[in-house]
């Protein structure tokens, strides 16, 4: 049996709530109203706390509360057609009728509109009158046919929306690949050209004798090579996310996860990483959690000018979400740059404590993970004092 939360989730998948009127649906309510000779007809979607009309005849408002909803009451009572000929003589419908201004008489008939796959009731096609009324079997059957056609229209809408979303996603990926090709052609050639030039200098100097400056050249070669490696690793990790299923949840022990991350980052003695948690375990993708923490912690270390670096991690549980905060005492980020930091291939042209520029991939990967987990990320920062990232993820 489908519970209310699952029903609402299925309803939201259609992405019909609060959409603009459409003639295909208005034609159905017009026919229903004419067929049954009623002043009111609606195609109603029953949301968690409201009913919303995809189409309406005889009403002015686009929505109302579920407390005053005949359709909400109808789907709570039955998943089949309901006809209430003398509405004000029915104990349950009378209460709703009074809220809608009815006094002595009233009529309601509603046919459920269902999701074809699960059978979940999304709402109703209904007709309403201010007086008592009786429908013939042919009228009821016609209403049921119209409701079935409405359900098919809903399904077509969902399929079209999914195709549109996929099309937008493909355009986005194509745009990213174009940008990727342009950036790679520039940013990868630069360190590679430096490596080639430095190697030539070493070859020229070692023709006679090994000179001291060659050690400096070798250091620069290593620096450029590491920069290139970080860049490639960041790109691979970013695009790897497209093929990883982050919905598979692992039961993770917080303390073990934090210790594992410390080992991965090879923390220096001047770096302190501490954590506080309202719970011992967290249930989410291990890959996702580690990638989030590694990227944010390593940024807090690299972009830090303090002699003693401190990183604080706080795990909290909200009503239906996890809250993870990662704070550092680093150089901070200007508020004008908050929107820029999550863009792929974008860095702020700031050198880290090791003299290197960022790849522009770390925080974009963090944002991509948070989005895939249907969460949110926010930032607060103060120059020369530090930065805090807040990540909210659904349980």
Describe the overall structure:
The protein has about 400 residues and is an alpha+beta fold. It has helices at about 5-15, 25-35, 70-75, 90-100, 135-185, 190-205, 215-240, 255-265, 285-300, 360-370, and strands at about 40-45, 50-55, 65, 80-85, 105-115, 120-130, 250-255, 270-275, 280-285, 310-315, 320-330, 375-380, 385-395. The chain folds into 3 domains: about 5-165, 2-Layer Sandwich (Beta-Lactamase), CATH 3.30.450; about 190-245, no CATH class; about 245-395, Heat Shock Protein 90. It is built from 10 helices and 13 strands. The strands form 3 sheets. The chain has a 6-stranded antiparallel β-sheet, sandwiched between helices. Strand 1 and strand 2 form a beta hairpin. The longest helix is centred in the middle third of the chain and has 51 residues, at about 135-185. It is elongated.
């Amino acid at each position: 049996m489908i519970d209310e939360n699952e029903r609402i989730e299925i309803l939201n998948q259609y992405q019909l709530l609060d959409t603009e009127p459409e003639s295909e649906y208005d034609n159905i309510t017009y026919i229903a109203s004419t067929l049954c000779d009623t002043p009111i007809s609606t195609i109603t979607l029953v949301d968690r706390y409201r009913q919303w009309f995809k189409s309406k005849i005889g009403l002015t408002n686009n929505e109302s509360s579920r407390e005053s909803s005949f359709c909400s009451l109808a789907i709570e009572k039955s998943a089949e057609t309901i006809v209430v000929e003398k509405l004000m003589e029915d104990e349950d419908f009378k209460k709703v009728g009074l809220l809608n201004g009815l006094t002595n008489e009233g009529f309601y008939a509603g046919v459920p509109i269902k999701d074809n796959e699960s059978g979940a009731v999304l709402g109703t096609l209904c007709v309403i009158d201010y007086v008592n009324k009786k429908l013939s079997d042919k009228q009821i059957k016609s209403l049921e046919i119209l409701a079935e056609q409405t359900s098919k229209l809903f399904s077509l809408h969902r399929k079209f929306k999914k195709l549109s979303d996929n099309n937008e996603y493909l355009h986005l990926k194509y745009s990213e690949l174009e940008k990727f090709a342009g950036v790679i052609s520039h940013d990868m050639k630069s360190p590679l050209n430096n490596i080639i030039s430095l190697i030539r200098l070493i070859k020229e100097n070692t023709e006679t004798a090994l000179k001291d400056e060659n050690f400096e050249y070798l250091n620069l070669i290593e620096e450029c090579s590491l920069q290139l490696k970080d860049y490639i690793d960041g790109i691979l990790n970013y695009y790897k996310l497209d093929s990883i299923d982050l919905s598979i949840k692992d039961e993770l022990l917080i303390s073990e996860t934090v210790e594992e991350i410390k080992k991965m980052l090879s923390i220096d003695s001047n770096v302190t990483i501490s954590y506080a948690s309202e719970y011992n375990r967290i249930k989410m993708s291990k890959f996702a959690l580690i990638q989030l923490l590694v990227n944010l912690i390593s940024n807090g270390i690299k972009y830090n000018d303090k002699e003693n670096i401190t990183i604080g991690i706080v795990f909290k549980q909200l009503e239906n979400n996890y809250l993870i905060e990662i704070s550092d005492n680093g150089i901070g980020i200007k508020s004008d740059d908050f929107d820029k930091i999550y863009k792929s291939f974008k860095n702020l042209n700031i050198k880290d404590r090791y003299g290197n520029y960022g790849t522009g991939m770390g925080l974009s990967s963090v944002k991509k993970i948070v989005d895939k987990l249907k969460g949110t990320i926010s930032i607060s920062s103060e120059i020369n004092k530090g930065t805090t990232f807040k990540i909210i993820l659904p349980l």
